[in-house]
Amino acid sequence: IAVALVPPLGVVGVTLTEANYADATGAFILFLTNLVSIILAASLVFVLTGFALITKLQENQEKMKTVIITVVLGALIVVVPLAFTSEGILTSASRQSTAQSVTQDWIGDQENLLLNKVEVQGSEVDVTISGEGDIPPVSDLNRMLSESFGTPTIAVVQYFPSQRLTADNEP
Prior knowledge:
By secondary structure, this protein is an alpha+beta fold. The protein has helices spanning about 1-15, 20-50, 55-60, 60-105, 140-150, and strands spanning about 115-120, 125-130, 155-160.
């Protein structure tokens, strides 16, 4: 339990001292998720193992209603931010995958070029390429990315000319 609860709270404290509120919020959501999960799992285990007797639970229906409502509200408080976070992660992963694929198509079958990195940051796509020879026009990549995303996109390409050396062709 301590492993699930203490580290996220530690991250909340550290990130708040650095005024990094987005990371602090994420860590706090992780803490709440872990807390609600522990409560739900422990409750289920107590009932299934007979530690919490069903007859006792039935005798205290008002208390049980209060506890159940509190836990359900806690779960809902956690589920809503998690749903938005999950949607954001899926969208980001999809955009990253699309950008990677489109950039590889833009390079084509030029074996002398190596796609080192593609990183999507909002409407900007940063591409790092190394190799020998000429790269295709960046305006083509920009157009292809904009068409694939359905929104205006800025392609930023860093090209590092390089030579492949082996023991046989060293200068």
